[in-house]
From TrEMBL:
Name used for this protein in its record: Efflux transporter, outer membrane factor (OMF) lipoprotein, NodT family
Location (main, coarse): membrane
Stretch forming the signal peptide: 1-21
Superkingdom in the source lineage: Bacteria
The keyword Coiled coil appears for this protein: yes
Gene Ontology, cellular component aspect: plasma membrane
UniProt keyword annotations, A-Z: Coiled coil, Lipoprotein, Membrane, Palmitate, Signal, Transmembrane, Transmembrane beta strand
Pfam families: OEP (PF02321)
One function term, GO molecular function aspect: efflux transmembrane transporter activity
Bilayer topology term: Lipid-anchor
Subcellular location: Cell membrane
Amino acid sequence: MFKRVVSTCVGVTGLLFLVSACTPTLINRQANTATPARYSNAQAQDTTNSATIQWQAYFTDPYLNALIDTALHNNQELNITLQEIQISQNEVRIRKGEYLPFVGLRGAAGVEKVGRYTRPGALEATTDIQPGTEMPDPLPDYMLEAYATWEVDIWHKLRNARKSAAQRYLSSVEGKNFMVTNLIAEIANSYYELLALDNQLAIVKQNIEIQSNALEIVRMQKQATRVTELAVRRFEAQVLHTRSLQYDIQQQIVETENRINFLVGRYPQPIARNSEAFIDLLPDTIHAGIPSQLLANRPDIRQAELELAASKLDVQVARANFYPSLDISAAVGVQAFDPTVLITAPESILYGLAGDLIAPLINRNAIKATYNSANARQMQAVYDYERTILNAYIEVANQLANIDNLQKSYEAKSQEVQALTQSITISNNLFRSARADYMEVLLTQRDALESKFELIETKRQQMNALVNVYQALGGGWR
């Protein structure tokens, strides 16, 4: 059943020379991983890095930590990524099995009828098993054998394919880590946004009360003919405008709560939180370390590095397709037309051993195209790796500058709020004594409300910057 065949069209030495001569030239470029010695807006060069702090210690709010912990277990997108890791791990096992011998068992039974007036039929008219006895017609055939096939990995094509799959498995793990970092940052930013909205809602309600009291005063003054109906209407419009802001903020609170609920993988429900201490939160001191630490701390950079390593191995796999491949196959078993003599030895025993040395000669354009595509993907991976490093550096630099500027902005906003809050009392007193126009009171109240809103917004931006720099430095996935 098996024949021993070695297929070669030219001598092996000449064949290898021919193949090597026709292999396209590899375009190779080393990735530039050099980073500046320090961040442009850093005060000093220090290797202390906040990215090494675990998120449980970085975020001190117990309500926020509970949300993050729930999300790391229930978030659907993260769980989908975990299944992608499992798929990548199985791909490694598949590739590993390809360069090992494949062994199997095979059994077969059949029957064949050939025409008597043909050469096969004439030769089978008699059999020498028992002289004078005809070959059974139709002819049964029973066979049981063990067989093995093996592609000898001469050029490490299969091993490189397995190594490439292993690199992509590790890349998928880093992709999961990057997703964890982003998920934690998104929850934290949404949580601080929720706290800010709560404080803005409280400010609006306070202003509604203040404006309502001012409206009652204006109405009494109208009755005393000290002001006109126009003043009353303007104060009423101011109260109604502030109430409309209340409803807008309440809707934003609902949407923000539901966004957090979606991230933690549950249906809408109230988010437990402590909003009263939000305005007093103080951003912790950030230690940015040195830029070269990003290569080890940022999961997306390590993911790009592993993708680059995998793409280089893919080029080696594609290059090996130009070289001859050696396939070895073997089988041993029994075969007979009569099942009663199937285990008769040595007459019913069959065995075979074959080796095939095959080199591509005609369909080389497809192999060249595959090789060129692998080479181009390698260049893409190089540029992507460099871009990821550059993007990480810029993200950190932006957030460090943002933290510094927001601190100065918050101090100025605090002084503005204090001044405008005092001006409300002053304007009301002047208005009661007819020494100020009602428009001054309205404008003062409006400016004070806007300044308080801006102060809360600046505080939210401060807390978001604290989250974003932690994310940019590569923290959160540990």
